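Hey all, sorry for the wall of text incoming. These are the three entities for the joint prediction.
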Amino acid sequence: MTGTIEGGWPYVIAAYALTWVVWAIYVVSLVLRGHRGAP
Amino acid sequence: MRWVYALGALALAALGTGHAIGLLVAPPDRAMGETVRILYVHVPTAWTAMLAFTVAMVAAVGALWSGRPGWDALLEGSVEVGVVFNGLLLCQGSLWARPTWDAWWTWDPRLTTSAIMMVAFTGVLVLRRLLHPPERRAVASAVATIVSFVDVPVVYLSVKWWNTTHQGFSSVETVDPVMLAPLLTSIAGTTLLGASLLVWRTRIAMAARHREDDAPDLPPTPIPLDLEASR
Amino acid sequence: MRLLLALVRKDLLVGWRGRARLVGLSTYAVTLLLLFSFALGPDSTTLHEHAPAYAWVAILSASTLLLAQSFQQEVEGGALEGLLLLPVSPTAMFYAKALANLLLLLFLALVLLPVSVVLFGLRPAGSPVALAGVLALGGAGLVAPGTLYAALTARVKAQQVLLPVLLFPLVVPPLLAAVKATSLLLEGDPMHQVGTWVGLLATFDVLYWSLCGVLFGRVVEE
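and here's what came out:
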């Protein structure tokens, strides 16, 4: 790691967006599986 | 179930705050620039994944010890949540490594270990899908979970010795107080989120197990609609 | 102890009866070695440098096929129930089975070693005894979790897929140490590092053999 890294923003945005999208997908999958499981 | 929603809401609040501070308020790092912001999601994800696998280890020991289906459901929930966070961890790590090290992947001990950990616990999930009946599945996945969990530090040490040219990571001591606030808030939020997802997933596993136990041994017969009444 | 040896003998006998299978496995492993050299091209220095790695990966791939079969008789012929009736603890059963698997694996390694020496142009520098020791220790590291998981997946239809998926993450540490130690033995060891790697390998072996031995009882019990 030498000096300031330029142009990091796209990676930052990608990391945050990816995180929230994955969480959202997982929550949706839980909702679907929960409904399927409900008698 | 209501307290899980409360837990989830609390998690979202903490995450919103932590991530907002991390993205908007916290300053860029002197050496790492803006990419330091990735650490505010990366470190909590790593912590939550490890926590989930630790819960899985406890559940596996419990399942072997007592044989209660509850432990098995907890194992299923925690392994799956752990794998989701672990996968996320690998992707975030790559997004951080690309601008920092100029490579999507390096054979650093931590990276290698988290990839191996992912494969090992995904294997446990695959095993669960392929094994019947539930009792045998519970024992087998508990054994596989224990072995995988013990394997993680072993892999870490072996890769560390194998590849001694790894780079240092920042630890808590080197983190600036201004950066500690978003980090700690995000850790709290992600842990709460992981916990509520884990409880949720465990409940689904419990329900699935009940259905499996109630189901007749020979499947072609139609399942009675009033399952609750017949129980 | 005598019972344990009898169990080992039984498994070796079963292996000998199916020796066509063993020959097939050896051929498969040799083919893998050939494929490595085709995939990498005729650049002999690259091949020479990484020869121990290729040899170990070939052993590993062949070993999953070997291990996947190791509980077939027990499950298909219902022999497991019979074995459980013997006055022998499941732990002893595990060690017998693992030992038999190790011996079969070492047979494979004995076939592969001369072939890789010839194919990759190695000039063995270390003592053959040390090399045999590293092979045995490395094989032990593969076989202990392999035997446990073979029992675990014995009744699964997709075992051929599941076994490597479960096993490969576990064999990373012994594999790393074995490859390092082997290459140091084959290409000379100016820094005297081989002792460290052998010690590491032995540590993994002790860990895996004790852990898997303890857990095996639960796997076959029910």
